């Protein structure tokens, strides 16, 4: 029988291999758990090392980042090593050797049976198959009594778990007892924040509430701090002024003021530049606070443009219509356009106007357009006095708390001022008089119309008359002062003696404001009554000039006394009071003579006004006025000059007889001239007295004739009645 070359398949130790597979699974599970605990131990140790290193050295951010990178690298390496060790399976030979080494009962039967029955083992052909089968049977028999689970020990896992608990419990206890340390560690080494490590001292900044703050320039910042833990140590601020706008960097330490038992306080007043600060107390160092100081918005330039109302007639393109400030002074209803430049960009601008309203102030708000962030444009109507300003909001949310306030002064258009210059008084007229009037009208910007109104003092006597003043005012002409001359023929009005006429002038401006003149009275007299009034005034004038003539004679006598004293050799200075008294007397004479000339002119004008040019006295009155005017200019004026010179020389003690004679001659000329005038008035007065007596005799004769006629009529009437009765 021929033997085959193919090897005879051998029966493998099935029970032994099953036990080896069970051992492999247990071994992998134990390695995974032990490796996980070991990796957690590495994590805890790394975290404790990071905490201790950062707490002691207060690492900066860069080193903390390097430290975190190193720890993460270490954890990844250890995790990979533990993971690979747990995932790498052990071979059957390795497990069999491990079981043989752990148990002396197998006597190498298990390793031999496993290796010689392995189909991939090339040396299995060198052994007798029967011997291999006996070895397999022996290994199977002995494996029935052997439990592989007893061969694996959990001591490494338990020791690792114990080490993990030993490291974890102090860390957890520390986190519970000092939670601020845990929070700070988490913030610094995981979130990479800049929170400082709490020390023996711990402080809390109450104000400001945030580490970054933007405040307005010029404001004050209150820093309030509360001490949470620590002894009675000094606290201060480490302040940094960064380099800004050409200013160099500055560092200061400011001691904090105590506030109560556990508080500190400091006030940064009138902030002008950015600052950074942090609190330090004992071993505590707080975080940095950054305060940005930004300017408030303000108006740097403003220009006004006036658009004048039409009634003023002013040009809105003139130089007066442009103003280089915010103060408004313009006529009422002027439209004001403004153009303003701000210091920084603004997001909102509101114009606010304050107007007086009783005891309070009324506010009017209007939005202002913003161009390119810094250019403000708007307009408003100047209607009342008040004040105005612009409220600004910047991009940082700041407002101009103390804005520039400008005045609004509205120039009102006052009512027209109307004056009747001529005659300018209450006068007497006859029914056929020619009334000459001169009306003057003043207004801020000119008037549109004017009227002259005549009304009877007693209603119903005649219809009021209105005369239009066509030459007074026009809005187009824009004249501030206008006048008009009128001559009114009263003969067509049908006036009668005894009536009184009221008249006044009125004017209307562009705003329909009415201006009125004073009301004057025209007293209507008959020509006879007017003549009597004239004669009475001439009589009063005569008496006045007679008194003046008496004063003039006293002046002459005083000068004669001065001349006699100088001739007798007396000092000239002693005559100075008499010379001054004579000079004042001559002044009184001059004043009265001028007044007499004015009265004569008034009487003459009245006669002419009332068309009484044929009156007997008119030519005589005009001639007398000319003589009085000549007396004043040709004689009184030289006499006053001579008296002034004499008084001055007497006061200086230099007056001579010749000076006194010159003054005396001048005064005598005045006296002679005044004597002639007075004589004429006396002659006229005597004549008027004779005429008045004749008129009285004529009236008495007429009265007598009237009474005789009445008596005769009564007598004749009585006789007729008696005859009838008979």
Structure write-up:
By secondary structure, the chain is α+β, with helices and mostly antiparallel strands. It has 5 domains: 162 residues, no CATH class; 96 residues, Immunoglobulins (Immunoglobulin-like, Sandwich); 113 residues, Immunoglobulin-like (Sandwich); 109 residues, Immunoglobulins (Immunoglobulin-like); 179 residues, A middle domain of Talin 1 (Up-down Bundle). It is built from 11 helices and 29 strands. Strands 2, 4, 5, 8, 9 and 10 form a 6-stranded mixed beta sheet that branches. Strand 4 and strand 5 form a beta hairpin. Helix 9 runs antiparallel to helix 10. The longest helix is centred in the C-terminal third of the chain and has 69 residues. The N terminus and C terminus are likely disordered.
Write the layout of secondary structure elements.
Elements: H1 14-57, H2 61-87, H3 92-102, H4 109-116, H5 129-144, H6 155-177, H7 179-189, E1 202-207, E2 212-216, E3 221-229, E4 235-241, E5 250-255, E6 257-258, E7 263-268, E8 275-281, E9 284-285, E10 289-294, E11 299-307, E12 322-323, E13 328-331, E14 334-342, E15 346-357, E16 360-367, E17 369-371, E18 375-382, E19 386-394, E20 406-411, E21 417-422, E22 427-429, E23 434-442, E24 447-456, E25 465-468, E26 481-489, E27 500-509, E28 514-516, E29 520-524, H8 527-567, H9 576-609, H10 616-652, H11 657-725
Parallel strand pairs: 2-10, 13-20, 22-29
Antiparallel strand pairs: 1-3, 3-7, 4-5, 4-8, 6-7, 8-9, 8-10, 11-12, 11-14, 14-18, 15-16, 15-19, 17-18, 19-20, 21-23, 23-26, 24-25, 24-27, 27-28, 27-29
Helix pairs in contact: 1-2, 1-5, 1-6, 3-4, 4-5, 6-7, 8-9, 8-11, 9-10, 10-11
């Amino acid at each position: 029988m021929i033997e085959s070359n193919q090897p005879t398949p051998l029966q493998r130790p099935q029970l032994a291999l099953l036990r080896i597979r069970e051992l492999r699974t247990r071994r992998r599970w134990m390695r995974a758990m032990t490796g996980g605990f070991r990796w957690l131990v590495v994590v805890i140790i790394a975290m404790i090392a990071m905490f201790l290193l950062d707490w002691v050295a207060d690492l900066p951010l860069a080193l903390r980042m390097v430290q975190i990178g190193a720890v993460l690298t270490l954890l990844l390496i250890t995790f990979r090593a533990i993971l690979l060790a747990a995932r790498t399976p052990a071979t059957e030979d390795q497990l069999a050797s491990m079981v043989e080494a752990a148990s002396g009962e197998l006597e190498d039967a298990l390793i031999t049976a496993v290796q010689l029955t392995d189909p991939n083992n090339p040396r299995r052909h060198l052994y007798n198959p029967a011997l291999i089968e006996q070895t397999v049977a022996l290994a199977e028999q002995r494996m029935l009594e052997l439990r592989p689970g007893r061969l694996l020990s959990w001591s490494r896992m338990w020791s690792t778990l114990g080490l993990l608990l030993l490291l974890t419990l102090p860390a957890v206890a520390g986190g519970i007892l000092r939670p601020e340390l845990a929070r700070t560690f988490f913030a610094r080494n995981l979130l990479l924040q800049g929170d400082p490590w709490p020390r023996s001292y711990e402080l809390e900044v109450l104000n400001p509430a945030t580490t970054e703050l933007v405040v307005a320039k010029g404001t004050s910042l209150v820093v309030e701090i509360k001490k949470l833990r620590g002894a009675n140590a000094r606290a201060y601020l480490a302040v940094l002024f960064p380099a800004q706008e050409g200013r160099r960097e500055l560092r200061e330490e400011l001691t904090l003021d105590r506030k109560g038992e556990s508080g500190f306080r400091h006030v940064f007043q009138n902030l002008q530049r950015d600052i950074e600060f942090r609190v330090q107390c004992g071993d505590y160092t707080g975080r940095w606070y950054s305060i940005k100081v930004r300017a408030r918005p303000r108006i740097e330039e403003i220009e006004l443009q006036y658009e004048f109302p039409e009634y003023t007639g002013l040009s809105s393109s003139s130089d007066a219509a442009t103003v280089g400030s915010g103060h408004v002074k313009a006529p009422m209803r002027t439209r004001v356009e403004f153009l303003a430049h701000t210091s920084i960009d603004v997001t909102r601008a509101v114009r606010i106007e304050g107007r007086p309203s009783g005891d309070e102030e009324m506010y009017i708000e209007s939005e202002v357009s913003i161009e390119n962030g810094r250019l403000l444009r708007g307009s408003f109507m100047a209607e009342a006095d008040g004040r105005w300003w612009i409220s600004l909001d910047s991009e940082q949310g700041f407002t101009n708390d103390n804005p520039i306030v400008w005045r609004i002064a509205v120039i009102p258009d006052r009512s027209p001022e109307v004056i009747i210059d001529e005659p300018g008084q209450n006068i007497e007229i006859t029914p056929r008089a020619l009334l000459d009037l001169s009306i003057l009208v003043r207004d801020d910007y000119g008037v549109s119309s004017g009227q002259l109104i005549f009304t009877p003092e007693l209603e119903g006597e005649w219809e009021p008359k209105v005369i239009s003043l066509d030459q007074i005012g026009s809005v187009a002409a824009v004249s501030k002062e206008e006048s008009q001359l009128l001559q009114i023929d009263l003969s067509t009005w049908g006036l009668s003696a005894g009536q009184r006429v009221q008249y006044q002038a009125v004017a209307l401006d562009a705003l329909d404001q009415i201006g009125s003149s004073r009301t004057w009275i025209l007293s209507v007299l008959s020509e006879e009554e007017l003549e009597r009034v004239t004669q009475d005034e001439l009589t009063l004038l005569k008496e006045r000039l007679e008194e003046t003539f008496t004063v003039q004679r006293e002046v002459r006598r005083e000068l004669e006394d001065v001349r006699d004293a100088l001739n007798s050799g007396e000092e000239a200075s002693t005559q100075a009071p008499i010379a001054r008294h004579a000079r004042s007397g001559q002044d009184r004479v001059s004043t009265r003579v001028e007044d007499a000339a004015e009265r004569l002119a008034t009487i003459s004008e009245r006669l002419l006004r009332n068309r009484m040019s044929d009156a007997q006295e008119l030519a005589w009155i005009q001639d007398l006025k000319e003589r009085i005017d000549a007396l004043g200019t040709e004689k009184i004026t030289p006499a006053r000059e001579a008296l002034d010179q004499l008084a001055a020389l007497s006061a200086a003690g230099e007056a001579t007889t010749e000076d006194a004679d010159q003054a005396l001659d001048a005064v005598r000329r005045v006296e002679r001239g005044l004597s002639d005038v007075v004589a004429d008035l006396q002659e006229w007065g005597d004549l008027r007295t004779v005429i008045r007596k004749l008129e009285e005799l004529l009236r008495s004769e007429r009265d007598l004739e009237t009474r005789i006629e009445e008596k005769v009529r009564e007598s004749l009437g009585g006789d007729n009645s008696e005859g009838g009765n008979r």
